[in-house]
């Protein structure tokens, strides 16, 4: 359990929603896309929301899941996707585009389907949507890091 920090203590004020949200997150963690892409999707949301709590929890988890620090750093520092595999670059571009422009081109959608297939693409979108909701809530309640956790997400000049 997370103790007194994180998404769960916020959600408990709406217990009817907290339980299905928890089950959804547990289900999405078993995504057919695998843990590496689960974590990359969660990190994309955390970066877009400048969500230090979520980022500092998911960056170490992403490394454990096999996501390379070089890929993490592209997201962390909002760098161009040049030099990444086309699959990683496509997912990062897809996430950034949806979060920032609220739509994607037919070409980008087809690239996602080409790399991930429909089932994985939909599950990755659900993960990004789930962590969008988490970031939205964490920022609303000004969630601070537990004292033992190191902040890993630098501020961006936007």
Low-confidence stretches: none
Radius of gyration: 15 Å
| Average pLDDT | 92
Number of helices: 7
Number of strands: 0
The helix/strand class is mainly alpha
Query: Main beta sheet: strand number and arrangement?
Result: none
Run of helices and strands: HHHHHHH
Distance between the termini: 35 Å
Question: Tell me, what's the shape?
Answer: globular
Instruction: Work out the helicity level.
Output: 55-70%
Beta-strand residue percentage: under 5%
Explained architecture:
The chain is mainly alpha-helical. Helix content is 67%, strand content 0%. It has seven helices and no strands. The protein has helices spanning 7-11, 15-29, 35-48, 52-64, 69-76, 86-101, 106-140. Helix 2 (15-29) packs across helix 7 and helix 6 crosses helix 7 (106-140). The radius of gyration is 15 Å and the shape is globular. The relative contact order is 0.19.
Strand and helix layout:
Layout: H1 7-11, H2 15-29, H3 35-48, H4 52-64, H5 69-76, H6 86-101, H7 106-140
Q: What would you say about this model in short?
A:
The chain has 158 residues and is an all-alpha fold. 67% of the residues lie in helices and 0% in strands.
Based on the model shown, name its key terms.
globular, mainly alpha, 158 residues, single chain, 67% helix
